[in-house]
Amino acid sequence: MKRSIQIFAVSALAAGIAACGGSSDGGTSTGSVSVGLTDAPIDNADAVNIEVEALVLQSPEGDRLRYEFDFPQPLNLLELQGGAVEALIQDEEVPAGEYSWMRLEVGTNNTIEIDGAVYDLTTPSARGVQTSGFVVPAGGEVALTIDFDVRKSIVNPQNDTTYKLKPVVRLVDNSTVGTISGTVTAELINEQCTDVTTVEESFIGNIYVHEEFDQAPDDIGSANEPLVVVPVTNNGSESTYTAAFIPTGDYTVSYSCGDDFVETTDGQPADDDLTFVGMQNVEVVEGETATANFDTQVVQQ
Predict the structure, then answer these.
(1) Domain boundaries along the sequence of the chain
(2) Which parts of the sequence belong to the DUF4382 domain (predicted)?
(3) Coil/strand/helix, residue 4
(4) Gap between the Cα atoms of 176 and 3, Å rounded
């Protein structure tokens, strides 16, 4: 099992405060932070192996706290779906306050496996991707998760031999998220996925999660881009999906069996003409799982 190598770049003043665990007015000036990595699923790959090198936090004092990792091999992000998480840092004591951003740095040893063939994932020269800011409470703790959205991060998939990695991530506070899950009936799949031979072995569609109620769903890269897209998978007895780490709030959830490409072969945003069915309003409550099932009756309503 890997263990992280932690390198702190903290000013002498900040380090002194952290060491004494307090400030001049007697208040606590440090807190703890934990960060995990998860994946918003993708349906058209067998493995997506990413070399995760470091995590950098931009501290309230202006210094950067850097954590380098020694994972023995690239992480297969497809093993981090449905709420599974790889811990990056755990209960690290850091200066309390408002952090401007967090940056996940990836290396160049990245590959994607499709139908048994392995292809390189080329990366841009700047291999770090920044998230939004966050707050570490004084004397408290915060647990965060970086959702590495593989579906939005891998582009040019219409070319058989060239795949590009342009990391797209979102940062969520674990105390303010919930889950959406449900089932899709075989009848609806057969109706919408006209080339399905057997549900167990075929592409059987995706669930789209759009922010706010009563949204008109659209594809990735559109003006009304989904927050996440998760595949429907069959376990031999039923077809299910799980959208994890969804911030609390109101969402429109829908089903589509169309192919949603991020970019065209010439690098332009792909405008895919998808058919969406079964739109449902779903409220996500922290720590709970909301259910949205899809069948022919829902579509006909």
Answers:
(1) 1-167, 177-301
(2) 30-167
(3) coil
(4) 28
30-40 vs 141-149, strand pairing mode: parallel
The answer, as to whether pTM is greater than 0.85, is no
Q: Which of 102, 91, 18 is nearest to 59 (CA)?
A: 102
**pLDDT tens digits for 199-250?**
766 789 999 999 999 999 999 888 899 999 999 999 888 999 999 999 999 9
CATH architecture of 177-301: Sandwich (2.60)
Task: For strands 134-136 and 47-50, give the pairing.
Answer: unpaired
Positive or negative torsion for Cα 286, 172, 279, 223: positive
Among residues 32, 39, 7, 1, the alpha carbon closest in space to that of 18 is found at 32
Other Cβ atoms less than 10 A from the Cβ of 291: the count is: 11
Percentage helix, strand, coil for the chain under 3-state DSSP, each rounded to 5: 10, 45, 45
Between the CA of residue 277 and those of 187, 206, 226, 257, what are the distances in Å?
13, 11, 15, 9
Q: 236-294, pLDDT tens digit by residue? A: 889 999 999 999 999 999 999 987 766 555 555 566 678 999 999 999 999 999 999 99
> Which residues, at least 6 apart from 150, have a Cβ–Cβ distance to it below 8 Å?
39, 40, 41, 42, 45, 48, 77, 78
